[in-house]
Amino acid sequence: MLKLYDVDTARQTILRRTPAAASYPPVILEATERLFGRGVTPRQAVTRILDSVREEGDAALLRWSETLDSARPADLRVPAEQLTEAFAALPETLTQAMSTAAERIRAFHERQPLPDWTTGALGGTLGQRVTPIQRVGIYVPGGSAPLPSSLLMSAIPAQVAGVEQIVVCTPPRGGTADKGGAPRPHGAILAAAHLCGVDCVYQIGGAQAIGAMAFGTESVPKVDKIVGAGNLFVTLAKQQVYGMVGLDGLAGPTETMVIADGTANPAWVAADLLAQAEHDVLASAILLTPERALAQAVQAQVARQIGVLSRAEVIAQSLAARGGVVITPDLETAAALADEYAPEHLCLSVAEPRALAERIRNTGGLFMAEHSFEVLGDYVAGPSHVMPTGGTARFASPLNVLDFVKITSVIALDASTSRALSPIAAELARVESLTAHAAAAQFREGAADTARGRNGAPTTVDTSYEGTSDV
What we know:
- By secondary structure, the chain is of the alpha/beta class.
- It folds into three domains: 4-19 and 252-386, Nitrogenase molybdenum iron protein domain (Rossmann fold, 3-Layer(aba) Sandwich); 80-249 and 402-407, Nitrogenase molybdenum iron protein domain (Rossmann fold), CATH 3.40.50.1980; 413-471, Single alpha-helices involved in coiled-coils or other helix-helix interfaces (Up-down Bundle).
- The chain contains 18 helices and 16 strands.
- Strands 1-13-12-11-14-15 form a six-stranded parallel beta sheet, sandwiched between helices.
- Helix 3 (42-56) packs across helix 9 (206-215) and helix 5 (80-88) packs across helix 8.
- It starts with a strand and ends in a 26-residue tail after the last helix.
């Protein structure tokens, strides 16, 4: 079930990054054709959904909800009293768990700096102003594995940043009914919204939810930025609306990589790999180790533990297609492979994690030693679990308060600095053949040899430049 690989073979298989379109599993392609017609790809299906939402608004949302989620809610917006009722209906243990997670998430993000600053060292005043985004949309998955934790991990950093309005979209559940017999989202997601103080919740899922938040409809307000992970259709929809709204990123299938040495507990390593693989058949759970004996012990533990897990079939498919154990010559090679792969989560189950961490620059979350395992990061450690996937950790960061603000540059130069800089700006403008730029700078030069008209404008503008002619 969990195969062993050498480094070269792993690079050509489980460590090889491929475009998302090249990895559509047959089950997704078959389902897409069944719903949208023969030969229709997931990308084309998403385009069809988005076009209809843009043109028809709420009517399209209701139609797609019925077609794709087997649910046609009477109201797209979830009444506030349902959020309160959902929280009250939680078992006390779950209420306490959610509350503790929310407190730790808030405490972590409140420590992230959002500095306004100014300096007079460059003449006049220069600086930056940090302004919260006005309206943010959060997508919360709610299908076979509803994720109330994703609402906490996205809404709380937005609140810390000062976002004025948070709009949540999460799918209704066709097989679940409230007291009136109507479909509604998962109760734990509604409870999480209540806990966060978010009352603008819409029961809309999939690509149609992304379209609703990007374009706005009769019921759903248009947002400025959309965050939160979702399935393939959600990710494709986010990709297609980018530019009309901002995005936190394009989440691919989730992934965990574990580097372990001979001190690691094979049962714990196996449990961490299984936890990752149960997310999705497209999830990746990979172990890198120089210890063949550990690799074989982890193999045995995976086979032993999977039998009692509720999503064993999903796990088995994930591990068979995208998981495995890579036998490396040493820990240094393992670290180099991990940095090359740039995993969403990187767990260092080694005797000296800090020394190995010095070799890592590319990962969304760095989990130091076996007591800092990835499941704690999913729920309650504090940092947001919305992290870069698909190798984007080479340039992207986990969701944080900076995702919910804009930085405005402030320029307030004094008159003498402006006069001193104007000829420099004019010189640079002339090399770019932008004569209007040069003229605007010459207005401010105040040079003694500039002939000026009644309004202070230069009567002639020097547009020559004795540099290269092919700029």
